[in-house]
Sequence to fold (278 residues):
Amino acid sequence: MNEYKIKLKIGEFSKLCRVTVKTLRHYEKIGLLSPHEVDEWTGYRYYEVDQMAWMNRIHLLKELGFNLESIKGLFDDGKVLPSLEQIQSQIKESQAELQRMQRRIIELDRLKERAIKKEKMENIHIKPLPAAIVASYRKHVKSYQELFELCPNVIGPEMQRAGCVCPKETEYCYTIDHNKNFDEGDIDLEYCEVVEARCPETDTLKFKEIPFIETAVCYNHYGPYSKLPQSFEKLFAYLQENGYEIIDDPRFCYIDGIWNKESEEDWLTEIQVPAKKK
Fold:
């Protein structure tokens, strides 16, 4: 008869049974599964191959919802598996837990809907747009990035030369995309900024009065301009759901962008859609 038995160090046993050494030490501490042998000189712990079956039973019973105390009680009583009564009791407890989880999912879904509604209300708001005199600069640009180079280098100096004064208490600027359809690399963009009075026009700088808009449905778009279509989807769905008719071109008010934010995700553009209830 072969008396040879493989002795596994705690690390080897841990690896083969897919359980941490910390867990094995805890099982030893509570008397659930102890090493077959502990070397009195080195303190090394050794497990036998037969103990792998006990480790697998512990795994199985834990997956079935039995706690370590009840598993230890089974093993102490010399049992390998729970009794029929214990299994039925665990089934009832699992069914009750399933019902609790189902109720939790229902409540979480309700909470999610409230959070979505709150986020939607935070991003979408209604406000009037003032009547004002604006300095208008219209140009075909390749991208919005070009606009942000034009503002400090061309539009600003042009307005200064024309003698424009911007009212600090009603500071307001925006752009309008006049393209009738998408044309990559060719955006017919108009930049408007409120001024206190008309000034002499130049070849590029014009002045006009914009009327009071009683209702503008506005959406706070956070992130790069490439993601604007996602915000349009939400904004126009809101307009449709709430019976709004669009009465003028959308305006884009750039609040935060490349000029003051390092990350594109922090850019904030307010999309303003003049509208009225049908």
